[in-house]
Amino acid sequence: MAKLKGPERVRGALEALALDCEVLTLPGSTRTAEEAAAAVGCSVGEIAKSLVFRGGERAVVAIMSGDNRLDTGKLAEALGHKVSRADADFVRAATGFAIGGVPPLGHATPAPVFMDADLFRFDRIWAAAGSPFSVFAIEPARLRDAGGAAVTDLKVD
Ligand code: 5CA
Question: Cystine design at 68: which of 15, 24, 76, 155 (Cβ 3.0–4.6 Å)?
Fold first, then answer.
Protein backbone atom coordinates (compact mmCIF):
# COMPACT_ATOMS: atom_id res chain seq x y z
CA MET A 1 0.00 0.00 0.00
CA ALA A 2 1.28 3.45 -0.87
CA LYS A 3 2.42 5.58 2.06
CA LEU A 4 -0.25 8.09 3.05
CA LYS A 5 0.62 11.72 2.62
CA GLY A 6 0.77 13.99 5.67
CA PRO A 7 -2.65 15.65 5.28
CA GLU A 8 -4.30 12.26 4.69
CA ARG A 9 -2.78 10.94 7.91
CA VAL A 10 -4.02 14.00 9.80
CA ARG A 11 -7.49 13.51 8.32
CA GLY A 12 -7.40 9.91 9.56
CA ALA A 13 -6.25 11.00 13.03
CA LEU A 14 -9.05 13.58 13.26
CA GLU A 15 -11.61 10.97 12.19
CA ALA A 16 -10.28 8.46 14.72
CA LEU A 17 -10.78 11.09 17.43
CA ALA A 18 -14.30 11.81 16.12
CA LEU A 19 -13.31 15.39 15.32
CA ASP A 20 -15.20 16.68 12.32
CA CYS A 21 -12.55 19.19 11.29
CA GLU A 22 -12.00 19.72 7.62
CA VAL A 23 -8.39 19.69 6.42
CA LEU A 24 -7.86 22.57 4.02
CA THR A 25 -5.12 22.65 1.43
CA LEU A 26 -4.26 26.23 0.56
CA PRO A 27 -2.61 27.74 -2.50
CA GLY A 28 -0.17 29.72 -0.35
CA SER A 29 2.45 28.42 2.07
CA THR A 30 1.46 27.74 5.68
CA ARG A 31 5.00 26.76 6.68
CA THR A 32 5.32 29.42 9.38
CA ALA A 33 2.70 30.93 11.68
CA GLU A 34 2.93 34.24 9.79
CA GLU A 35 2.47 32.56 6.43
CA ALA A 36 -0.37 30.41 7.75
CA ALA A 37 -2.16 33.49 9.13
CA ALA A 38 -1.83 35.26 5.77
CA ALA A 39 -3.04 32.18 3.88
CA VAL A 40 -6.03 31.62 6.18
CA GLY A 41 -6.84 35.31 6.68
CA CYS A 42 -6.65 35.27 10.48
CA SER A 43 -4.39 36.85 13.09
CA VAL A 44 -1.03 35.23 13.89
CA GLY A 45 -2.27 34.53 17.44
CA GLU A 46 -5.00 32.28 16.04
CA ILE A 47 -2.36 29.96 14.53
CA ALA A 48 -1.42 27.04 16.79
CA LYS A 49 2.29 26.26 16.43
CA SER A 50 3.12 22.64 17.33
CA LEU A 51 6.66 22.76 18.67
CA VAL A 52 8.61 19.61 19.47
CA PHE A 53 11.30 19.53 22.14
CA ARG A 54 13.43 16.79 23.66
CA GLY A 55 13.00 15.92 27.28
CA GLY A 56 15.79 13.38 27.65
CA GLU A 57 15.19 10.73 24.99
CA ARG A 58 11.50 11.51 24.78
CA ALA A 59 9.64 14.10 22.78
CA VAL A 60 7.48 16.75 24.39
CA VAL A 61 5.04 18.85 22.41
CA ALA A 62 4.15 22.48 23.12
CA ILE A 63 1.22 23.94 21.21
CA MET A 64 1.78 27.69 21.19
CA SER A 65 -0.23 30.65 20.04
CA GLY A 66 1.46 31.99 16.91
CA ASP A 67 2.24 35.38 18.43
CA ASN A 68 3.92 33.93 21.53
CA ARG A 69 7.43 32.60 21.97
CA LEU A 70 7.94 29.48 24.05
CA ASP A 71 9.80 29.89 27.34
CA THR A 72 11.72 26.60 27.54
CA GLY A 73 12.20 27.13 31.28
CA LYS A 74 8.42 27.14 31.77
CA LEU A 75 8.08 24.02 29.59
CA ALA A 76 10.78 22.23 31.61
CA GLU A 77 9.02 23.18 34.83
CA ALA A 78 5.66 21.91 33.55
CA LEU A 79 7.25 18.64 32.35
CA GLY A 80 9.44 18.19 35.41
CA HIS A 81 12.47 17.52 33.21
CA LYS A 82 15.08 19.57 31.39
CA VAL A 83 14.19 20.18 27.74
CA SER A 84 16.31 20.94 24.70
CA ARG A 85 15.56 21.92 21.14
CA ALA A 86 14.81 19.06 18.76
CA ASP A 87 16.48 18.87 15.38
CA ALA A 88 14.59 18.17 12.17
CA ASP A 89 15.34 14.41 12.24
CA PHE A 90 14.14 14.06 15.82
CA VAL A 91 10.92 15.95 14.97
CA ARG A 92 10.23 13.68 12.01
CA ALA A 93 10.97 10.49 13.97
CA ALA A 94 8.85 11.54 16.96
CA THR A 95 5.85 12.89 15.07
CA GLY A 96 6.03 11.35 11.62
CA PHE A 97 5.88 14.84 10.09
CA ALA A 98 8.42 17.34 8.78
CA ILE A 99 8.91 20.78 10.34
CA GLY A 100 6.51 23.28 8.83
CA GLY A 101 3.64 20.81 8.74
CA VAL A 102 3.74 19.19 12.19
CA PRO A 103 0.14 18.86 13.43
CA PRO A 104 -0.81 19.08 17.12
CA LEU A 105 -2.15 15.49 17.19
CA GLY A 106 -1.82 12.20 15.35
CA HIS A 107 1.88 11.79 16.08
CA ALA A 108 3.87 8.60 15.47
CA THR A 109 4.89 8.26 19.10
CA PRO A 110 2.99 9.29 22.24
CA ALA A 111 4.36 12.34 24.01
CA PRO A 112 3.25 14.67 26.77
CA VAL A 113 1.45 17.67 25.29
CA PHE A 114 1.30 21.16 26.76
CA MET A 115 -0.85 23.95 25.42
CA ASP A 116 -0.36 27.70 25.67
CA ALA A 117 -3.23 29.17 27.70
CA ASP A 118 -3.32 32.16 25.33
CA LEU A 119 -4.84 29.94 22.63
CA PHE A 120 -8.04 30.13 24.70
CA ARG A 121 -8.35 33.82 23.75
CA PHE A 122 -9.97 32.55 20.54
CA ASP A 123 -13.12 30.56 19.75
CA ARG A 124 -11.32 28.76 16.96
CA ILE A 125 -7.67 28.25 16.12
CA TRP A 126 -5.83 26.94 13.07
CA ALA A 127 -3.20 24.21 13.20
CA ALA A 128 -0.90 22.55 10.69
CA ALA A 129 -2.34 19.46 9.04
CA GLY A 130 0.68 17.49 7.94
CA SER A 131 2.16 19.63 5.19
CA PRO A 132 3.32 23.22 4.69
CA PHE A 133 0.17 23.91 2.64
CA SER A 134 -2.52 22.43 4.87
CA VAL A 135 -4.35 23.44 8.04
CA PHE A 136 -7.45 22.61 10.02
CA ALA A 137 -9.56 24.71 12.35
CA ILE A 138 -10.60 23.56 15.81
CA GLU A 139 -11.93 24.98 19.08
CA PRO A 140 -9.11 25.17 21.66
CA ALA A 141 -10.98 23.05 24.22
CA ARG A 142 -11.58 20.28 21.67
CA LEU A 143 -7.89 20.25 20.77
CA ARG A 144 -6.97 20.12 24.47
CA ASP A 145 -9.33 17.22 25.12
CA ALA A 146 -8.35 15.27 22.00
CA GLY A 147 -4.65 15.44 22.79
CA GLY A 148 -4.90 15.23 26.57
CA ALA A 149 -3.00 18.50 26.66
CA ALA A 150 -2.16 20.31 29.88
CA VAL A 151 -3.00 23.99 29.52
CA THR A 152 -0.50 26.31 31.11
CA ASP A 153 1.40 29.57 30.76
CA LEU A 154 4.31 28.77 28.45
CA LYS A 155 5.12 32.09 26.86
CA VAL A 156 8.12 34.37 27.15
CA ASP A 157 6.83 37.34 29.14
N1 5CA B 1 2.57 25.26 9.62
C2 5CA B 1 3.00 26.28 10.54
C3 5CA B 1 1.88 26.94 11.28
S4 5CA B 1 0.64 25.87 11.86
C5 5CA B 1 4.01 25.68 11.46
O6 5CA B 1 4.23 24.49 11.47
N7 5CA B 1 4.59 26.56 12.28
S8 5CA B 1 5.48 26.12 13.52
O9 5CA B 1 5.90 27.34 14.15
O10 5CA B 1 4.79 25.19 14.32
O11 5CA B 1 6.66 25.33 12.92
C12 5CA B 1 7.82 25.88 12.66
C13 5CA B 1 8.65 25.66 13.90
O14 5CA B 1 9.58 24.66 13.67
C15 5CA B 1 9.46 26.88 14.30
O16 5CA B 1 8.77 27.73 15.15
C17 5CA B 1 10.65 26.26 14.99
O18 5CA B 1 10.41 26.07 16.37
C19 5CA B 1 10.76 24.92 14.38
N20 5CA B 1 11.89 24.85 13.47
C21 5CA B 1 12.06 25.50 12.31
N22 5CA B 1 13.23 25.17 11.76
C23 5CA B 1 13.83 24.28 12.57
C24 5CA B 1 15.05 23.53 12.55
N25 5CA B 1 15.91 23.64 11.55
N26 5CA B 1 15.31 22.68 13.55
C27 5CA B 1 14.44 22.53 14.56
N28 5CA B 1 13.26 23.21 14.64
C29 5CA B 1 12.98 24.08 13.67
Answer: 155
